[in-house]
Design brief:
eight-stranded antiparallel beta sheet, elongated, 8 strands, 38% helix, 164 residues, alpha+beta, single chain, 2 domains
Length: 164
């Protein structure tokens, strides 16, 4: 009798463990390759924890971005400094009606965090789709359509990203 009870307990335990593993695998496959966002306590916006992808695979080259947006009728301005500072960067500001993208290229480890802080100061309380520091790129994009028109390959990110 005791043997049957032990076999039953071992059998049920094995089924439970295998079921748990199967559920974990299914959840992992569902999440893998998709953006996973988390709402952190104390913030109204969600931080996006994206797929692990190189920023260069997501962010279009500067000349490609400018060309794409000019074709769609955006007014393009370029600057050789970041937003409100004297930090050297290749900044592109493109606008069309209420749609915009403001992006800095040419940043490095010594200045990317400072530039992102400037962008947060200017754009955090505005109506945007994505405000991000992705590798050595910093950008704010007003809407999903502008994101696609500019040539971005998704919203995957290595860095910090706020998404509304």
């Amino acid at each position: 009798m005791k043997n049957r009870k032990n076999i039953l307990i071992i059998g049920i335990s094995t089924i439970l463990v295998l079921s748990f593993i199967i559920v974990l695998i299914l959840v992992w496959r569902r999440v893998q390759g998709k953006d996973v966002s988390v709402l952190y306590e104390g913030f109204d916006e969600e931080f996006l924890i994206g797929r692990i992808t190189l920023p260069e695979d997501v962010v279009p080259a500067e000349d490609v971005l400018i060309s794409n947006l000019e074709k769609k009728g955006y007014q393009i301005e370029t600057f050789d400094v970041a937003l409100n500072s004297d930090i050297s960067a290749n900044r592109v500001l493109a606008k069309k009606g209420k749609s915009f993208i403001d992006i800095c290229y040419g940043l490095d480890a010594t200045n990317v965090n400072d530039v992102f802080s400037e962008y947060k100061d200017v754009y955090f309380d505005t109506n945007y789709y994505i405000l991000a520091q992705n590798g050595y790129y910093v950008y704010c994009i007003s809407d999903k359509k502008t994101l696609k028109r500019s040539g971005f390959n998704g919203t995957a990110n290595i860095g910090v990203q706020y998404k509304k």
